[in-house]
Amino acid sequence: MSDTYNLVVIGAGSGGLISSLIGAAVKAKVALIEKNKMGGDCLNYGCVPSKAIIKSARFVQEIKRHKDYGIKEASFELDFSEVMERVQDKIKRIEPHDSVERYTSLGVECFQGEAEIIDAHTVKVGDKVLKTKNIVLAMGASPFVPPIKNIDSVEYLTSENLWDIRELPKRLVILGGGPIGCEMAQAFNRLGSEVTQVEMADRILPREDDDIAKFVIDRMREEGVQILHKTAAKEVTQENGENLLLCDAPGGQKKIPFDKILIAVGRKANTQGVDWQRLGIDLNPNGTIKVDEYLRSTKKNIYACGDIAGPYQFTHVASHQAWYCSVNALFSPFKKFKVDYRVISWVTFTDPEIAQVGMNEKAAKEAGVPYEVYTYDMTELDRAITESEDYGMIKVLTKPGTDKIIGATIVSHLAGELIGEFVTAMKYNIGLNKILGTIHAYPTFIEANKGVAGVWKRATAPQWALSILEKFHKMRR
Ligand SMILES: Cc1cc2nc3c(=O)[nH]c(=O)nc-3n(C[C@H](O)[C@H](O)[C@H](O)COP(=O)(O)OP(=O)(O)OC[C@H]3O[C@@H](n4cnc5c(N)ncnc54)[C@H](O)[C@@H]3O)c2cc1C
Ligand SMILES: NC(=O)c1ccc[n+]([C@@H]2O[C@H](COP(=O)([O-])OP(=O)(O)OC[C@H]3O[C@@H](n4cnc5c(N)ncnc54)[C@H](O)[C@@H]3O)[C@@H](O)[C@H]2O)c1
C-alpha cells in the first residue's frame, strides 16, 4: 500500500474537522494537522465561549427584570471568575467531539504541529514529510488589529485572550459593532461592566436593515451600553495613570477612559507567512485564498474552506464548504459539485437575536433584485406576550406576485430557532402559502412564522374574488 495520502487537511477547526471526517468516511487515507487546539476558533475562542458567557449574562438580566415576572425582590452576587470558569467548563464538555481520540477512531490520522506546505503534493509537520494527492487548506482567520497609535501600550483583548480574564473590567471599551462587538458589549454590560462601543460606520450592525438593527440598538442603549457611531479610534494614551482612547467623533475629538479594550473589528484570513506565489496559489485582495466554484485554489489539487477562503465567516458555512472540498478533491474528475450558497443562514446572539436567511432588504436593493416585503409584529404573538418577550419583528421578502421566499429576517427572542423553518422552506422551495397551511402548535414562538405568512395572504388576497364572495353570501342570507 502506498504511503501517499488522498487528502492532507491543514487546520482542525470547523472546516478541517469536517473535511477530514468526510474523507475518512469514504475510506480515503486522510491526515489532519493542527498546530494549536483541536476544534479551532469555534470551540476554543469563538462560538462556544461566546454563547456560554451570553447565557450567564442573560441569566443576570432576567434577575434584573424580576418585576416583569411579578417577583417583588430578587438579587444576585456575581462571581465573574466563576462565570469564566463555567465558560471553560462548557469548552471542556464539547472538546471530546473534536478530539484527536475521536478523529483517530473515525479513521483520520491526526498530527500535532505546524504544517508547512513544501509543494502541491508534500506537507511537512515536525520531522514528518507527508506525500499527498490533494491538500485542503482550513487554517481559519485571526482577529484584525487596526493601526491605532500606541495600541501596544495596553494589553488589549481580542476574541483569543478574552477568555483568560478572571476580573470583570470596570470600564470596557469595545471597538467594532459587528456580531462579536455587539454580542460581547451586551453580555459584559449585563454582567456589570460600563461598556462603550465604538463603531466607525453610521451605525452598529451595518449589514442589517435599519428597522431590524433598531430593535437591538434600542435594547442595548436601554440596558446602558454607550454606543458611539461614526467614531474612529485613533490613539491610546495614558493620563494620570488612566488609559484613554482618543477618537475622531462627529462632535470633534473624544477621549474615552477605559480599564480594558476589546478589539472586534473583523477577522483576517491566516494566509501570512506562506509564499503562495511559489505554490501557484492566488490570494484575493482581502487576503483570503482565491477559490473557484468547486473550492479549488489556483493550484488545482489544493482546495480551501472556512474563514481562510470566505466569503462567509461562520462555523456552519466552513463545514458546508468542507464537504465540497473533500468530495471534489477525492472524486474529481469523475464527479464534482459547485458550492451552493443559495440558502445561507446566520444568527447574531444579541438579545433580541437577529437571524437571517437569504437576502435582507439591503442586500436585495444592492443586488437590484425586485421583491415584496411582509412583516409580522412580535407584540401580537400570544406566547411572546405570556413570556414578556413581545418585542421584535419578522420580515420576509418574496418574489413579486408569488409566495416564493427570497429572504427572511427575524429579530426576536429565539430568532435563531425560528429561522430554521424559513431555511428549510427556502432550501426546498416551499412558499409562504404552505407555511400558512401547516399546523403550528399553540402557543409557541414558531407560530409567528405562520403569522407572517398570514400577513402575506391577506395582503395578496384577490380583491375581485372577495367581492364575488361577498355577493354570494349576501344572496344566501
Ligand atoms: C468570538 C467569536 C464568536 C463566533 N460566534 C460564531 C457563531 O455564533 N456562529 C458561527 O457560525 N460562527 C461564529 N464565529 C465564527 C467561527 O468561529 C468561524 O467562522 C469558524 O471557526 C471558522 O472555522 P475554520 O475551520 O475556517 O477556522 P478555525 O476554526 O479558525 O480553524 C483553523 C485552525 O487551523 C489551525 N492552523 C492554522 N495554520 C496552521 C498550520 N500552518 N498548521 C496547522 N494548523 C494550522 C489553527 O490553529 C486553527 O485551529 C465566531 C467567531 C468568533 C471569534
Ligand atoms: N453569531 C455569529 O454567527 C458570529 C458571532 C461572532 C462572530 N462571527 C463571525 O466573525 C466575523 C468577525 O466578527 P467581527 O464582529 O469582528 O467583525 P465584522 O467585520 O463583522 O464587524 C466589524 C465591525 O467593526 C467596524 N470597524 C472596522 N474597523 C473599525 C475601527 N477601526 N474602529 C471602529 N469600528 C471599526 C466595522 O464597521 C464593522 O461594523 C463576523 O463577520 C462573523 O462572520 C459570527
Automatic annotation (TrEMBL):
Listed Pfam families: Pyr_redox_2, Pyr_redox_dim
Keywords, alphabetical: Disulfide bond, FAD, Flavoprotein, NAD, NADP, Nucleotide-binding, Oxidoreductase, Pyruvate, Redox-active center
Superkingdom: Bacteria
Ranges of residues in domain FAD/NAD(P)-binding: 5-322
Cofactor(s), by name: FAD
Disulfide bond residue pairs: C42-C47
Example GO molecular function: flavin adenine dinucleotide binding
Domain Pyridine nucleotide-disulphide oxidoreductase dimerisation: 344-449
Cofactor detail note: Binds 1 FAD per subunit.
Binding of FAD, residues: K51, D307
Protein name from the UniProt record: Pyruvate/2-oxoglutarate dehydrogenase complex, dihydrolipoamide dehydrogenase (E3) component
Originating organism: Pseudobacteriovorax antillogorgiicola
Taxon lineage: Bacteria, Pseudomonadati, Bdellovibrionota, Oligoflexia, Oligoflexales
